Amino acid sequence: MAAYDFAAARLYVEDGLAEGGEIEIRDDRANYLLNVLRLQAGEAILVFNGRDGEWRARLAQARKRAALLRLEARTRAQTGGPDVDYCFAPLKHARLDYLVQKAVEMGAARLSPVRTRRTQVARVNLERMRANVVEAAEQCGVLRLPTVEAERPLARLLAEWPAGRAMIVCDEGAPVADPLVALRALPRGAPVGLVVGPEGGFDPAERELLLSRGDAVRLSLGPRILRADTAAVAALALVQAAVGDWG
Amino acid sequence: MAAYDFAAARLYVEDGLAEGGEIEIRDDRANYLLNVLRLQAGEAILVFNGRDGEWRARLAQARKRAALLRLEARTRAQTGGPDVDYCFAPLKHARLDYLVQKAVEMGAARLSPVRTRRTQVARVNLERMRANVVEAAEQCGVLRLPTVEAERPLARLLAEWPAGRAMIVCDEGAPVADPLVALRALPRGAPVGLVVGPEGGFDPAERELLLSRGDAVRLSLGPRILRADTAAVAALALVQAAVGDWG
């Protein structure tokens, strides 16, 4: 892992990226580029779209509400990443923003909000989640952006669970046992889905539903209770180390 | 790990705790108890001091700037925890608060701020760090509070490194390799110190200094660059799972 320059300005775009190409940035994104990052004509920035790697682009023209970038050279090839779904009970505003940003850094492939009995928020704002995905990817140099799935009740998440995808459940009720032993049963690179409940945990009926699946891996995160955003990073670290692309 | 009630009001106190004892809470803490938590006479709260476990106490008397609590029964025995030092380059205000809170949840025994060339803050506020330790312990039910050490330059941290304490360095320059293999060399329960650099990483001379210690375990946290607070939780999760008390 090469040192990455957090200070480098990076911009997510939706256009395709290829040598010699030009991209027009409009409206809010142009405002961000010109008035927040204060990019001047002739200056370079890194751009990425989640598909074509990372490119160096130069500001060719700045107008009032639009900016024209000219692509120069690819600085990094597109990378994939491990097939890790992160299924979680949404939190309230700032803590959900944080949780989403952390899941991006930790390399999740998909973010699946799950409604549970003890979920604390009435409705999850998917647009805001997507904006946090983009912001975290811009800040941390992540080239593969996780997709944001619609919110589903827990029972539906389980009913629609894809065949062949291992389910890993962070279970506060599990006896404290070496989580690495539990994870070692899965082959590296296996498609997995990590399910983390709300603060206060799954309710008894939900736990029963989850644990009635004989193939679910129960993961204990130690003898202390973790906040949901801490559990996100801790569980993803163990999964990436044992099954994902940290090996 | 039994379900823990995040909603239960918990108060850190400095007094010794024993059956039938009384504790007078004054000033800011009394204000917190009476005006923030709004505890009414006769209502119960949990108290802990980091030494004598957790106790149920009832508000016996509320005065203007003081509250008298009467101890009823011990609800949890004092727990120790793994001997894990967390040595880190301090971050700016809110992100340092967050990092400290996360390290408490993750069960660190000691918090050691380390000055590095790329550390972004001029001076670390140890009182604020201690307040964050207390707040995180109150919120998350952690009974052993980590101690907060004075800030030291990296060279001094290394010169004063205790004999017999394994050093684990989060090294952005390390080749991506299974971090669990690196940690498996350490026996469970071994005293360890985890060293995490600033954002932007250690500078070349610092890395050389760190890696010149033949016994340092180099830990890679995968192919993506993590923010320092994310690296804190991820690295502590791996250490607790492989060496600490998650086993």
Annotation keywords:
homodimer, 247 residues, alpha/beta, Ribosomal Protein L25, Chain P, Alpha/beta knot, seven-stranded parallel β-sheet, five-stranded mixed β-sheet, 7 helices, 12 strands, 30% helix
Description:
2 copies of one chain form a homodimer. Chain A has 247 residues and is α/β, with parallel strands linked by helices. Chain A has 2 domains: 10-76, Hypothetical PUA domain-like, domain 1 (Ribosomal Protein L25, Chain P, Beta Barrel), CATH 2.40.240.20; 84-243, Alpha/beta knot (3-Layer(aba) Sandwich). Chain A has helices spanning 27-36, 93-105, 126-140, 154-159, 179-184, 204-211, 228-242; strands at 10-12, 22-26, 44-48, 54-62, 66-76, 84-88, 110-115, 147-148, 152-153, 166-170, 192-196, 217-219. In chain A, the strands form 2 sheets. In chain A, strands 6, 7, 8, 9, 10, 11 and 12 form a 7-stranded parallel β-sheet that branches. The longest helix of chain A is centred in the middle third of the chain and has 15 residues, at 126-140. The mean pLDDT of chain A is 91.
